[in-house]
Amino acid sequence: MGKREIVVTGLGILSPIGIELDSFWNALIEGKSGVGYLDSVNTQLERRPIGSEVPDFHPKDYIKPRKNIKVMSRDIQMGIVAALLACQNAGINLEEGSRSVDPDRIGCVFGCDLIGTELGLLKDAFKDCVADGRFDFSKWGPASIDKIMPLWMLRYLPNMVASHVAITLDARGPNNTLNLDRGSSLAAIMEACRIIERGAADVMIVGGVGNKVNPTILARSGAYSLAPRTENPQEHPRPFDARRAGTVVGEGSGVFVLESREFAEARGAKPLALVKGFAERLHPTGKFGSRQEAVESVVKETLRVADLKPADLDHVNANAFGLDDDKLEAQGIARTLGDVPVFSVAGHIGNLGSGAGAVELAASLLALSNGVVPATRNCENVAEDCPINVVKDAPRKVVKPTFMKLSHANTGRSFGLILEKY
Questions:
Q1: Which three-class secondary structure state does DSSP give residue 82?
Q2: Cα-trace Rg, the chain
Q3: In contact, 51 and 248? CB cutoff 8 Å
Q4: Whole-prediction pTM value?
Q5: pLDDT for position 26
Q6: Which of 174, 188, 203, 418 is nearest to 317 (CA)?
Q7: φ, ψ dihedrals at 402, nearest 5°
Q8: Could you tell me which of 66, 71, 83, 70 has the C-alpha nearest to residue 14?
Q9: Which tens digits make up the pLDDT trace of 310-353?
């Protein structure tokens, strides 16, 4: 049996600059930012922490029955809603008796971060362990157990996002979770493609979700090289910019419906894009290699698999988060792709962790559909150590039907994906 072609037939987005696709796209084109002081974080500090939150998110409007929400963390809720929006966008009917897909032939792969605990759920348990103003660890078991919801742990297992999506959609096919930080979404898409290629499913619901503004995750913010506090939080992050000073953490989810081409055509779907090729590479550190070498390697391999040349690409959707590492990605792109235009979504939304790659990928899919590539927000003067052709100042017309998306994980992996307008 020959290799099955795979198409993207739907997408759903929950981002700091919009939930509906139109609002997300308009915010990109208008150069809007979702970065600001975090309303969700209660603190005694003079100024709230900076981050990017999904605005006006009401999971009760989407998740049925509503009682299920009590066993779902915010990450799970975002993943489910984005999946439902993606299925709606793809025209997939989930109603019993008139389903578009056999439940045994639809699966789910999700990229997910470590899920932070919602502190309010443990407040009473902690209070019962405090004596004379100090926490008494010896009381934690006996005093706290009755104050913690029995199903509490099920809210915070990373694999529960894909599990709940599968339950909601009655997707009984292959199911998996990948935890590779900002590389998770592309890694999930690659696995989903391989599942369809080998005939184990006709349809895969795939994407990523991240929530780095949860207080228990934000407490470790020193690990993220954050931008400094400023009177204008929206001036960060600054991808590829000469004044880049760190990233901004955020939350969000992006989900895609992938199908074998023949299945999509048989059900009358209108594909958005064709998966041309993908690859991943590991970048060791020190004397054994560098991230720049990994970028070069993954770009070359992705082009080889897709049977394309640099001149065939309209643009590159970069991983850049406004970090010092931007230079390594930029130099790798410059050495392999030359003057191909490059843009980053991070200036609008910050670092969404495992949700980053999916939300960013959606931006390029919408760019193909709308015929224009958004400008890279907050990139005013391209740094000398980033010798690439950054799309900045104004949107750029799409002139070719194909683009490459890059993502790089802190674990040492680099991922490349090429999509072509259908």
A1: helix
A2: 21
A3: yes
A4: 0.94
A5: 98
A6: 418
A7: -125, 140
A8: 83
A9: 999 999 999 999 999 899 999 999 999 999 999 999 999 999 99
